[in-house]
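sry for the spam today, last one i promise. C-alpha cells for design, 76 residues
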C-alpha cells in the first residue's frame, strides 16, 4: 500500500500561474520523492488547472543516502 508521508509547501515557479511542491511516498520499504507541478492555462473558453507529478528520486528505507530527516516520518 502506498502512503504519502510528507509534502512540502507549494512554492511559486516561473510565471504567474506556476506552482511546485515535493511529495514523499512510502510503498513497502521504498520512499519515493515526487516533483509536483500545477499550472493554470487558458484553453480558449476558460482557465483550467493542469497538474503533473514525476518521480525524481527513491530510496530503500535502510539506504544511508536517504535524507535523515525522513526517518521520523517512517514507522519501521
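last one done:
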Amino acid at each position: 500500500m502506498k502512503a504519502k508521508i510528507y509534502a512540502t509547501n507549494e512554492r511559486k515557479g516561473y510565471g504567474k500561474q506556476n506552482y511546485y511542491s515535493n511529495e514523499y511516498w512510502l510503498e513497502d520499504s521504498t520512499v519515493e520523492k515526487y516533483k509536483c507541478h500545477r499550472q493554470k492555462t487558458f484553453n480558449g473558453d476558460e482557465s483550467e488547472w493542469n497538474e503533473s507529478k514525476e518521480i525524481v528520486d527513491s530510496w530503500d528505507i535502510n539506504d544511508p543516502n536517504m535524507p535523515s530527516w525522513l526517518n521520523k516520518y517512517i514507522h519501521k
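The beta strands are 2-7, 11-12, 18-27, 30-42, 47-60. ok im logging off now
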